[in-house]
Specification:
This protein has 15 helices and eight strands. The model has no long low-confidence stretch (mean pLDDT 92).
Amino acid sequence: MKAARRIGKGLLAICLLLLLLLAAFCLLHPDVTKMVWQNLTTPTLEMDTSDWTGGVSYEGVQYADVSDNDYLNLYVPDAEEPMPLIILVHGGGFVSNDCESRQAQFVYRYFRQQGYACASVNYRLAQEAGYPAALEDVKAAIRFLRANAETYGYDPNSFVIWGESAGGYLATMAAVTNDEEFSGVSFIGEDELDEPVSAQVSCLLDFYGIIDIPFASGDFQAQGIPTAIITIANSWASASLSGTGYDSVEEYWLRTTLADCSQEELAQYSARYYIEENWETVQNLNVLIWHGTADISVAETQSERLYQAFLSGTYQADGSWSEGEARSNVTLQTFEGYMHADDRFYTDESLANIVQYLEALFD
């Protein structure tokens, strides 16, 4: 009995010590504590999964024959005239999810109801193929969709690309690179065409995308967020890294250790590098960037840096930026208290703002 009481007192002492340490951390790091609390208390949105009867669905459409995973799901609403197409690129840290991810479903289920064709693109994950396979897949899918626009019934001149998280990286890179770059994957039927097909898009919708992979961890350190919190928040990725020899999903996908890369190599993993390189055409791209202030998977700084690159057309290797003049075709919007992949990005009210934005572009 005495031994049990001693154990009980010891456990109580440990609990009190942990509470004191937690209280001290909260006092010393109020901003970090606020972000963690916002992540823990984020509401969940119920998805409407009712059947869609407003058009034609084409599921499992193979766009390339490099992999069985190179397919897309396409939804084309009933309409008298061809409508704009939104190309969806799912997230998942380059190692998980597919074209039916929760976020992709929120987007295509809403926008097809609003009269937009939607193509949700599947691509090869890091377990199957490293960089730049996923990006080459996405660009092949865009070309396939343009080449087959008349067959399916959407407007080949009104392409929007949306991506979230890792998909935000892929969508952004697809939007800012030229047709010669990352074109290593041919789409089905491409070799039968007399003229090349472009992968260019009219509009980029980037939701909390990781843009500068080399600064992924450093951005959080600059915010004063302890590495332990970032590790816990992104522990879902650890299973994918087992046995790979890499410390992050980004390095696993790149198949390289960033610390061993030269500045020239690091530059080519950044979307900002291609914005400067292709500035003559990129400056005309319509861009909408959304990011939550409580994101502890992709730092808000990533979107701020991308936004400034779209304003100035410059790449700076140290991760700093030049303040560019505001332009009407580039918008960055932050959402107070929203976490990474927050369901509140996908409410009807939130997505209605994007409909309004797109209507202004295409009307």
